């Protein structure tokens, strides 16, 4: 069995096991809510590429390690403190992180064998990136899904421009701009999850996957499906009619004005949320989701790779909205980002447009070979 598990480099942050025909991958950085490091991305890629070519492995399961006595997390995103340090230091590993992460996202979407994502607890940002391409996305009542990147002056990447654009109506714009956290019922209703297994069933499910008889991919899938239950109904606070009325408008300014004029608690709360975000990056996120509706996943990831380069480099790291957003949230923790510009009315349309100009010629793009 040893040759089924190739050498890994993340010093235990990724754990790999094989049970019968099933390859199991555990994100094992629980103290950081299993946030992805570059080494973890490389190990995930190594395992998936290796197992794709091994006939003994017929299916793969992804899960997150738990923390004793604390709420679970599948994966809370990428290592944003690393982003901050690497951007200010001019470390080329920052570019490597996003290139390799987006390649991994594409690999999972195109994976030739059933991939099961056990999305227990927090599933945000990079955690959505490695779960949304899975063939079977399993949720429970503890699942909390979000693309919260605008909160740090970024945009919903890791394929977010593609999978959020597939949500019905204008749910994708709402999730992209606000970073709203949604539960299992909403996620399944809007195409961001597949099945619901009650939390009380998860210990036996994981025990079955790890140690039960798993001779074929069909048996693996059956281990999940025999425990599937009805998901709780979607939360009425975010019904599509509310979302579509506001987030179908053409600009961020129009969305904000519509929310401000609405005499309802949901709209007022949403308006307050958007006022805390970077105006520039709200405009970038809105444009990304709308372009995403006509893009393939590969083209979306190529677009996002250019956007994330500009997020750190268009103004220089010292003036980057993303560097400032991470500083405020995770470094100084003052939760008082200084956005430039600070108001929606002052958005520079030319600068927003510049985000969508690729920094590379097509034949030089780091993701040029994705299909």
Automatic annotation (TrEMBL):
This is Enoyl-CoA hydratase/isomerase family protein. InterPro entries: ClpP/crotonase-like_dom_sf (IPR029045), ECH_dom (IPR045004), HIBYL-CoA-H (IPR032259). Keywords: Hydrolase. NCBIfam families: PRK05617.1. It comes from Pelomonas nitida. PANTHER family: 3-HYDROXYISOBUTYRYL-COA HYDROLASE (PTHR43176:SF6), 3-HYDROXYISOBUTYRYL-COA HYDROLASE-RELATED (PTHR43176). It comes from the Bacteria. Residues 23-356 form the Enoyl-CoA hydratase/isomerase domain.
